Give the backbone structure.
Amino acid sequence: MVRCINRELIINGLVSLIIIIFACLTVGTIVVIGSYAAHNGIAPIIEKHFTFHIIKFTVLQAILSTAIIIILGGAIARALHRNNHNLVTKYILKFLGMSFFVPSIVSVIGLSIMHGKKGWVHELFSLFGISLNNYLYDIYGIILGNIAVCLPMVVLIFYHRLNRLNQVSWKMATLYNISEKNLFSRVEMPEIVKSVPSLSLVVLMLCMSNFGIVLSLGRGPIHTTIEFAIYQALRFDFNIAAAVMFSIIHFAIFAIIYCYFLQHIIKPFDIYSSLEKVRYAAKSIYVRAIDYVFIFLLFLLFIIPISAVILSGMQERMILTLFSSDFWQALKDSFIISFSAALLAIIFASSILLINFRIKRQLAFSKKSNIILMFTSLCLSLTPFVLSTGVFIIMYRFVNIFEFAKTIIILINAVMACPFVLIIMMRSTSFVSRQKYLLCSNLGVDGINFFRFIYFRRIKQLVGYSFMIAFIISWGDMSVISLFGSKDLSTLPYLIYQNISHYKVNDAAVVACIMLLISYIIIWVILEVTKNEINYVRVKQSKV
Amino acid sequence: MKKLLYAYIFITVIFTAITSLAIDQKTYQKKLYIYASNAFARKWEDDTFYKKLFEEKCNCELVILSIDNSNAILSRLIIEGDSSKADLVVGIDSNLISKAEDSGLFVPYKQKKYNLALPIKWDNKYFIPYDYSYLSFMYNSKILKNPPKSFKELVYSDEDYKIVIQDPRTSPIGLSLVAWSQMVLKNDFHEAWKKLFKKVVTVTKNWNDSYFLFLKGEADMILTYKTSVQYHQIIEKNFDYKTINFSEGEYLILDVMGKLKNSKNQELADKFIDFILSEEFQKFIAKHNFMYPVIDIGNALPIEYNGVSKPRVVLYQQPSTFKLYKNLWIQEWLDALIEN
């Protein structure tokens, strides 16, 4: 009994400590920024006209990109689902699954190879005597970059949503000879729309935080986003007042957007591929053509740019790069930072889930308690630069921030990955029902035994997937490292950007290729290791 | 499958252990920490001859930390404050001298007769230049056949020039362009920039990004140092690139260095300044940094420099003027950009 109480106390203590650290990083940042602003004022350092321009540009490019991504993603997912028996579709889906979070800097290189002035698209049009404008380093380039980063995630989620439809639905559709238009409006559209609010929110947040894309493809000050303005204020001017002003604006915008979406509570995304459904209806040539157009668009917007990176990287310089000390230093730092951040994100998320579970238990599993929602929304509204501003304010007067750069980067990356980990791991709360939990308690299976033998077996795949997502987010992060990066501390994305800056374009392509291949290997290994032998997700077996 | 994972982890650990092995090198008791701009630091990484030469001369280890540019260097020094390890800073742009002086982090260098051969009189006691050049627009003479002959022609001409420039808020060259255009355009600054922005392909964060875009053929002209052509002529033996001699005159850019107040190696820092301003190293700057040396090296100046004529009129804004008007100029520039 005493041993149980001690164990319980230790676990409670640890969880509380983790929650306190997390709260200091999130809520603490807001408090620190707010108190700095209250104490020193936020007199606009930059002219108001330009500040409004920054805000307008940030929001408009994000809304435009989100609208395009959601519409295109839905159409492409539908086209893929209509051809789901096709081998090509299966490989496309596998490729999209592996490229869930492509680092933005890798997309930029791929887009440059494809759409740059001497890129493939320009050369193709020049064969027909058509000279295109330099559209890449403009709003079009930024939108293309946003699409390249977010499209795989959106397509996959819409596809799995469509795949959840009962096999009977498709049989009935064929039986009653429902037209494509009615099938779309009465069957497919209602199902897709269920994911639209939460997915739009995530895509909007990602497009507003697209620092790497804007840094590389923006046409200078006219394409400044709020994050970029904070970066400039901290890195080049060390203008804390300006950084605080923009952080508050950024946080306020996110808060407003989130409140708007509040009625559509963030639902966990479906990551399981249930059994592929068979769509019996024969397709007309018109329908086939539409499908092929959308699948071609997927190739054009995502698959070809990523393939371009791999093809450009596979050159003789790869051997030289593999023996370069800069590369190995960056690889080592990338691994340490990504691994630590992913682990920390899982720890944060698990602690939040545990607290949520305990609160729910106290409230007799009432649905009123949802602190997960609260933490998710808080994390999504805090971008890396807002967090960095808070860290700078707290620390710069007392310590040399650059000596703790690695720790700060790990902490910030962990907080950034936390909402995605929470969204995925939220599902785990439904894996063990209240009855099962009470049964286990009655049988004396509690604490570590409950976790090890009952709970973890069911959530292993979720944990693996969450770790993978958190790792990949941190692996491709360009935001925080751009504030602290130097010769002594460099990650692979930073090395790619440095190579581009020193016009070592070939080296940049090689590093991007290696980075992409390593991320694919890591994804494959994690998914293989954490694959469940038994699928604990309830899948309605289709009766053929 | 678990064996595969263990093998993978084992291989990763081995590789990271290998990269962590210290390289066997001579160790010195004293270390001289230098914060340098990328342009300066890159030369010391590519060619360690001068690094080893100085280390043997001063019996100390030279540690050079490469930071983007002057703005980033100054920001870092302000953030680090008294706990900064830096003894000396190399690569501050002359436009940022007033900001650097106001930080209170620098001490006067040891006054000596260096016989500087500069186009202007130099009397700043905190900072001393180690190279200089002029601001200009570079183009490929095989692609652009009729470049503009003056700044005003570049702005007001109906020719569809495509130029790439740098952001004055993040790039010292961009800031110099704003100062240069202010001196040339005077009251027409706002309207002229609204016209000029129509010809701008992109405004990059720094000079390196612009150069990359220009070499990839994204623009006809790039804002750069007048002596950038020397790189292509000396290293690539490519004489296609040329710079434009604007009739209004060209803006002088100096790279300066300064000692830090909190440095515990003041004497070593003085020795490094002497080393940089020595004739031998100034020849290296002319040949490998592609900037004009600040002392007269006579016939040692590469012959390719003869092909680049020095400006008839040298334009330069004093640091005190910069301190007063920099923010105003940048705001006007941003206004013109948004209204474009």
Remarks:
- DSSP finds 13 helices and twelve strands in chain B.
